[in-house]
Amino acid sequence: MASSILTLISFIISFTLYLVSTSAITPAAPPGPIPGPLPGYGPIETNGKKYAYVCDPARFTALNLDVKTFSYCNTTLPFSARVKDLVGRMTLQEKVLQLGDYAQGAPRIGLPVYKWWSEALHGISTVGQGPRTSPSHATYFGDVVPGATSFPTPLLSAASFNETLWNQLAQVVSTEGRAMYNLGHTFLTFWSPNINIARDPRWGRILETPGEDPFVVGRYSVNFVRGLQDVPGRVVPPNLNERPLKVSACCKHYGAYDVDQWFGIQRITNDARVAEQDMVESFNYPFEMCVKEGDVSSVMCSYNKVNGIPACADTKLMSQTIRGDWKLHGYIVSDCDSVEVMHDAQQWLGDTPEESVMRAMRAGLDLDCGSYYTDHTVAAVQQGKVRESDVDNALTNLYTVLMRVGFFDNLLEYQKLGTESICTKENIELAAEAARQGIVLLKNDNSSLPFNNMTHSHIAVVGPHANSSKPMLGNYAGVPCRYITPLQALSADARVEFDLGCDVWCHNQAAKDHAKQLAMTTDATIIFGGIDLDVEAEAHDRWDLNLPPDQITFITEVAEAAKGPVVLVLFSGGGLDVTFAKNNSKINAILWAGYPGNDGGKAISDVIYGRQNPAGRLPITWYPSQYTEILPMTSMKFRPVEELGYPGRTYKFYDGPVVYPFGFGLSYTQFTYNLSLPQNSSVVDVKLGPDQKCLAVEYKPNTQVPPSACAAVKIADTNCNQSINLDLRVTNAGKVDGSHVIIVYAKPPQYIAGAPIKKVIAFQRALLKVGQTQYVQISVNVCDALGLVDKSAYQILASGQYTIEIENGDIVANVTLPVNFN
Ligand SMILES: *[C@@H]1O[C@H](CO)[C@@H](O)[C@H](O)[C@H]1NC(C)=O
Ligand SMILES: *[C@@H]1O[C@H](CO)[C@@H](O)[C@H](O)[C@H]1NC(C)=O
Ligand SMILES: *[C@@H]1O[C@H](CO)[C@@H](O)[C@H](O)[C@H]1NC(C)=O
Ligand SMILES: *[C@@H]1O[C@H](CO)[C@@H](O)[C@H](O)[C@H]1NC(C)=O
Ligand SMILES: *[C@@H]1O[C@H](CO)[C@@H](O)[C@H](O)[C@H]1NC(C)=O
Ligand SMILES: *[C@@H]1O[C@H](CO)[C@@H](O)[C@H](O)[C@H]1NC(C)=O
Ligand SMILES: *[C@@H]1O[C@H](CO)[C@@H](O)[C@H](O)[C@H]1NC(C)=O
Ligand SMILES: *[C@@H]1O[C@H](CO)[C@@H](O)[C@H](O)[C@H]1NC(C)=O
Ligand SMILES: *[C@@H]1O[C@H](CO)[C@@H](O)[C@H](O)[C@H]1NC(C)=O
Ligand SMILES: *[C@@H]1O[C@H](CO)[C@@H](O)[C@H](O)[C@H]1NC(C)=O
Prior knowledge:
Elements: E1 4-6, E2 44-46, E3 49-51, H1 57-62, H2 79-89, H3 92-96, E4 102-103, E5 114-115, H4 154-158, H5 163-182, H6 214-229, E6 251-254, E7 261-262, E8 265-266, E9 271-272, H7 276-283, H8 285-292, E10 298-301, E11 305-306, E12 309-310, H9 316-325, E13 331-334, H10 338-343, H11 353-363, H12 372-382, H13 388-404, H14 425-438, E14 440-444, E15 458-462, H15 486-490, E16 495-499, H16 512-520, E17 524-530, H17 549-561, E18 566-571, H18 579-582, E19 589-592, H19 600-608, H20 650-653, E20 671-676, E21 684-686, E22 712-714, E23 723-732, E24 738-747, E25 759-768, E26 773-781, H21 782-786, E27 788-789, E28 795-798, E29 800-808, E30 810-821
Parallel strand pairs: 1-26, 6-10, 9-11, 10-13, 15-16, 15-17, 17-18, 18-19, 21-30
Antiparallel strand pairs: 2-3, 4-5, 7-8, 11-12, 14-19, 20-23, 22-28, 23-26, 24-25, 24-29, 27-28, 29-30
The chain binds 2-acetamido-2-deoxy-beta-D-glucopyranose (10 copies).
GO molecular function, one term: alpha-L-arabinofuranosidase activity
Signal peptide: 1-24
Keywords: Glycosidase, Hydrolase, Signal
C-alpha cells in the first residue's frame, strides 16, 4: 500500500552553468589510431578520396602539402591560435568564398568544402540544401544510412514537461548525427532548435516549437542544446571558446519572428512592431536562456524586420545583445537568403548589394545562408564599405566552431560511431517513449479509457490519420528508421476493422458510410482526426482553429453511429477548437498526439490499452476559433489592447474562454496535493542597499493598494539571493501508477497594472506508484520567479502579496507569499 519515498528535487533557476550528467549513450574513447567507421566513407572528400578529418597528414600529402607546415593543424596550440593561422593564410577572395552556407574551401592551403546547413529539429533531417552550386545536400540518406530515428515534433515532446527526456532525446540525435558525419552523410552544424514563442495560435510552425511559455521554451532549449552539444566530462574548460562540441546547435529564429504567410503578409517583408517590454519578457527570453545557460554555439537571425530594421542587420539585437550582453561563444547565421531579401524584397534603405552586405556584417552577421556574402563581399571591401578585418572577425567566429566540433581533428569520443549507432533498438524506443510521455488526455468521460483487450477485442479504426505514416513526422523530418502506424500497432491489441473513411479535408464521401458501418458493428471505435502539413506549415499560417468542416461532420456521424465507446485521437501542432467533440457525449475520450514520430502508432496504442498512463500537458492554450476573428495575427502585443478590443495572448495575459487551457492534461489516476511554505521562509524580506532607489508602480484603477514605503526596486540594483522554498506533497490517490507533471505558477499582486495574470516559475515531472506520496521540494530564486518587466523594459521586483499555485486546468493548491523590502 502506501509507500513513501523522500525525493528532493530542487530547481535553481540561475544563470550559471547547467551540468549534464554523463550518459550511457556516449561510447568510451577508443584507443589507437583514427580509422573512420567504414573504409571508403568519410566526411571530407579530397581528390576523389574520403578522409575523416581535415588535418589528416595523408590528405595533405594528396594535395602535395606538408601538414607539419600548417600550424592550424597543430593540435598542441589553442583553437584561437590555429584559427588565426588559418584565416591569416587566406587571400581576400578565398576568405569571401567561405562566408556562405556552402563554404567552398581553399585547396591551396588544405581547406576543404564545408556545408554548414543541416537540421536536427527532432532527428537528423533531410532539410538543408547545402551547396547551391552542386547537387548533393549537406545531409543525405541512402546506401549505408537508409534512415535515422525520427522523434515526435518538438511540441509533443515539450508536452512531457520532462527535462531529462529533452536532454536524452537530443543526445541520441547528436549521436546519430555524429555517426552520419563519420559516414559522410551529414556535417556537424545543425540549425535546431526552433525556440520562437507560439504567440498566435494561427502560426504554421507551432509544431516545431516547445510552446507558448517563455520559461518552458527556455528550459527546453537549454536541455536540447546541451544534449546536442555537450561532450560529457568536457563541459567547462576555463575558456568556453575552446570547449569541444559533440555537434553544434543553433537557436532560431531571432527575433520576434512568428508570422509566416497570413492574408498576404509575408515573413520576408513583415515588420514586427514590438514593444521593448515584450521583447525582454517574451520574445528574447528563451534566446537569452539558450545562450547564457545552454551555451549554444550559434544563433540564427530571422527574415522579418523588428521595428523597421531587418533582424539580420540589427546591431542592437546581434552585436550588442547576443554577443555583448549574453556573451555568445559561437557564430550568427542568417535565415536562408536574408541578406538578399534585405536588398531585393525589402529594398531596405535603397541599398546597393554591397551596402546590404555592409549592414549585415557590421551588425554582427557572420554567415550568410545563401550566396549574397559570397557574391558581393569582395566588391564591398574594394568600395571601402566592409573592412577586411570585419571579414576576418566573421571567419574567426565560424572556424572556432568548426575547430570545436572536431572538423579539423575529429573528436576521439565519437570517431568510432557508425551505422550500428543509428536506428538502434534503444533509440527507436526513446522515440516511442517521447511520444508516450507527451500524449495529452483531454477528455475521458466515465473513465472510458484505458481499453482492455478482453472487452475491447474487436475495434473499428477509422479517420484520416488511422494509418498515417509520413504525417506522423511533421516537418523538418528525415527518413525514419521505420514506421509503426496506429493501425499496425492497434492490430496487436485487438481484431481491427479499418477504413480511413476520408482524408484530412474529407471531401470524398465514398468511404464514409463504410466507416460508420464498422463503428456500428464493433466493441469500440477509434477515430484518428486532426490536421497535417496541408493546413499548418512553414510559409503557411492557418485561417482559423477549426478542423476542416467536412471532417467535423465525419467525426460526428461516425460517433453517432458507433455501438461502443468512441475515442478521438487528434494529430496537430497548433491548438484545435474541438468544442464540438468536447461537448459531444457520444465521444467519450479525446487524446492529443501531436505529430508523434516514427513509432507514433505504438505510443498511441500503449496509451489506449493502458500500458502507459498519460501525463502530457498542453504546452499551448487551445483557444476557441472566434479568438482569431477579433485579433489580427500581426498585432505583436501580449497584453490586451483595450482601445482596439484585442484580447491578450497566451495564458499569461488572456483570461477569456478556452477550449483547453495551457498546462491541461488528465490521467487514468488522481493526484492530491498538500502545499505549504516552510515556517522559516513564509515571507520574503529583501534587504535594500543604503542608496537604493524605490520605483513607482502603475496600479489598476479602482483597486485597493496596501500602503508600502517602497513599491518596487530594479532587480539589477538588488542583491536578490533569497529563494522561495515550497514544501509540496503529491499523492497518487487513484488505482494505477502514473507520472505526474507539477506546474508551479506565481501570481503577482492583483492591483499591479500590466502584470501577467500568472506565470510558470517551475515544473517537474514525477513518477508515483499507487498510494505513494512524494515530497517535492521546490526552490526558486525570488527575483527570477516574482520579477516583472515594466513598461520601460526594466526588470523589477514589486512588494506585496503573491500567490504561488499549482494548477491543472483548475487551481489544485495554493499559498500566499508576502514580499517586503527593508
Ligand atoms: C606545434 O606547436 C607547438 C607549440 O607552439 C610547437 O612547440 C611545435 O613545434 C609545433 N609543432 C609543429 C609540428 O610545428
Ligand atoms: C457517463 O457519465 C455521464 C456524466 O458524466 C452520465 O450522465 C452517463 O450516464 C454516463 N454514462 C455511462 C454509460 O455510464
Ligand atoms: C491482454 O492484456 C493482458 C494484460 O495487459 C496481457 O497480459 C495479454 O497478453 C493481452 N492479450 C493479448 C492477446 O494481447
Ligand atoms: C498502412 O500503412 C502502411 C505503411 O504505409 C502500409 O504498408 C499498409 O499497406 C497500410 N495498410 C492499409 C490497410 O492500408
Ligand atoms: C458546449 O457546452 C457548453 C457547456 O455545456 C455550452 O456552453 C456550449 O454552448 C456548447 N457549445 C457547443 C458548440 O455546443
Ligand atoms: C498538509 O501538511 C501539513 C503540514 O505538513 C499537515 O499539518 C496537514 O495536515 C496536511 N494536510 C492534509 C490535508 O493532508
Ligand atoms: C529553514 O529551515 C530548514 C530546516 O531547518 C533549513 O534547512 C533551511 O536552510 C532554512 N531556510 C532558511 C531560509 O533559513
Ligand atoms: C545574501 O547576500 C547577503 C549580503 O551579501 C549575505 O549576507 C547573505 O548571507 C546571502 N544569503 C544567501 C542565502 O546567500
Ligand atoms: C523522464 O524521462 C526519462 C527519459 O525517458 C525517463 O527515464 C523518466 O522516467 C521520465 N520521468 C518521469 C517522471 O516520467
Ligand atoms: C486558493 O486561494 C483562494 C484564496 O486565497 C482560496 O479561496 C482557494 O480555495 C484556494 N484554492 C485552493 C485549491 O486551495
